[in-house]
Design brief:
Elements (H helix, E strand, L loop, with lengths): L3 H6 L17 H13 L4 E8 L6 H4 L2 H12 L5 H9 L1 E2 L2 E2 L4 H8 L7 E5 L2 E9 H4 L3 H17 L4 H23 L6 E3 L8 H15 L3 E4 L2 H7 L10 H9 L3 H18 L6 E2 L6 H7 L9 E4 L4 H14 L8 E4 L5 H11 L4 E6 L1 H4 L16 E8 L2 E2 L14 H11 L12
Parallel strand pairs: 6-7, 6-11, 8-9, 9-10, 10-11
Antiparallel strand pairs: 1-5, 1-12, 2-3, 4-5, 12-13
Helix pairs in contact: 4-8, 9-10, 12-13, 14-15
Length: 430
């Protein structure tokens, strides 16, 4: 077993870089990348780092030279022969050759494009601009680098024994959570923690604990590299990025209103089964489902990623019933800010009413709350989002207005087009 405390204390980054592979990335990014490669190959998109937790002054914590060194290292990466073989030949969701030969040929020759980095008011402004299918693969590695460098900065002055104690306590905390989940009947849970993990080594340790502690209740990881190395299922479908960019490319209000459904029409042509999962909250779940074409009711399930999760699930169940579908045959995936208490509560509430699954993220792979002085490793909300497409601003409304993003006038326009009324604000932890 890797001695994580020793690796933190005696760290040599060239031996142990933060991001060590182009597939040290979430599976849904690769699935979306292939869809974009096929359907929107000429779209130019800008991604930007957004720190919602303004009190965490990343530019004061993280050395710019260290950050550039890690980002430059990522630009040097390319697929290895083994990684290419894994993607070309492995079975994902029961389907062999999920990734098409033309996409794989492009991916095998990819080097991530350049980045732009500045310091401003105690924060880093980090942006990536270029062809959508190229720059989109920066999102997860960029977040992983910033999160891990922040953690290293907090732990920098700890001595070796202190670090040993810290990680022993963190492992105990993790194992206690897993022990509480063991007795949850019919649990289905996956690791969704790549983007805001404590480190690659810690995420891998968390996955190992889930495998050993939960057995068949643990259904896989979103991280492709860990899935490959541990021979487990790679989990993921699609994200808000697709409707955000499609919508920004729309030329009229009428095209804008149809953009979220055009995304899913393109997806429908490429995928079936458990990859047909709706993510309806980009511009408000209730309005999205009300206007959704009938064929979407036949999809496998829905992912709840903002707002009150129980409310979102109730809306989905009612929608399926109204469309003549049996909710008990549908899959509801909860994935927003989960920890053990909420997982148990939601599993109990919806048992027998739908198939329920959980994507456990930051509070699985980066929960050091209460373990460091002044809670220096408290989780915080860092995202990297598409902010422009072909020069047009992107907008996300969400079911929680505290997660909304985009210029104020565009937010109001989108609210009008998508019929979004008053929404309840909820604290954003991660």
């Amino acid at each position: 077993m890797v001695d994580i405390a020793n690796r933190v204390w005696n760290h040599k980054w060239k031996i142990d870089p933060i991001v060590r592979s182009l597939i040290d990335n979430d599976f849904y990014k690769l699935l979306m990348c292939q869809s974009v490669f096929r359907n929107k190959p000429d779209a130019t998109v800008t991604f930007s780092l957004i720190n919602r937790s303004k009190d965490i002054r990343l530019a004061d914590l993280i050395d710019e030279g260290e950050l550039r060194e890690q980002l430059d290292h990522i630009r040097s990466l390319s697929l290895t022969r083994g990684e290419s073989t894994f993607l070309r030949g492995n079975t994902f969701y029961g389907k062999r050759q999920m990734f098409r030969p033309d996409f794989m040929e492009w991916f095998e020759n990819l080097r991530l494009p350049d980045y732009h980095l500045e310091k401003r008011n105690g924060q880093y402004e980090l942006t990536f601009e270029g062809k959508w299918h190229e720059v989109m693969l920066w999102e997860i590695p960029a977040l992983a680098v910033l999160m891990e460098l922040r953690g290293r900065a907090v732990l920098h002055d700890m001595r070796k024994f202190e670090l040993q104690v810290l990680y022993a306590r963190a492992m105990t905390k993790l194992w206690e959570k897993i022990e509480r989940l063991r007795d949850v009947p019919d649990l289905r849970i996956a690791d969704f923690g790549t983007r805001r993990r404590h480190s690659y080594l810690w995420q891998d340790r968390c996955v190992q604990a889930m495998i050993e502690g939960l057995g068949d209740k643990f259904i896989g990881t979103s991280n492709c590299l860990i899935a490959m190395k541990r021979d487990i299922e790679a989990i993921g479908t699609n994200a808000h990025e697709l409707p955000m960019v499609y919508s920004a490319l729309a030329k009229t209000d009428e095209e804008l209103a149809q953009a979220p459904y055009q995304v899913l029409a393109d997806w429908h042509e490429e995928h079936d089964g458990n990859l047909r999962i709706l993510l309806p909250d980009t511009y408000g779940t209730e309005g999205f489902l009300k206007r959704a074409p009938d064929w979407l009711a036949g999809w496998t399930g829905i992912r709840i990623d903002s707002g009150d999760p129980a409310t979102g699930a109730e809306i989905a169940i009612k929608w399926w019933k109204d469309r003549g579908e049996d909710p008990r045959e549908k899959l509801i995936i909860f994935s927003d800010g989960l920890d053990v208490e909420k997982i148990v509560e939601l599993r109990t509430q919806f048992a027998g009413r739908a198939k329920v699954s959980f994507g456990w993220g930051t509070l699985l792979t980066n929960d050091f709350r209460g373990l460091t002085p002044d809670d220096g490793l408290l989780p915080f909300s860092l995202v990297c989002k598409a902010i422009k497409a072909d020069g047009n601003p992107t907008v996300k409304l969400s079911d929680n207005p505290n997660k909304a993003m985009g210029p104020a006038e565009e937010i109001e326009r989108y609210k009008r087009v998508f019929g979004v009324g008053e929404q309840s604000r909820m604290d954003v932890i991660v």
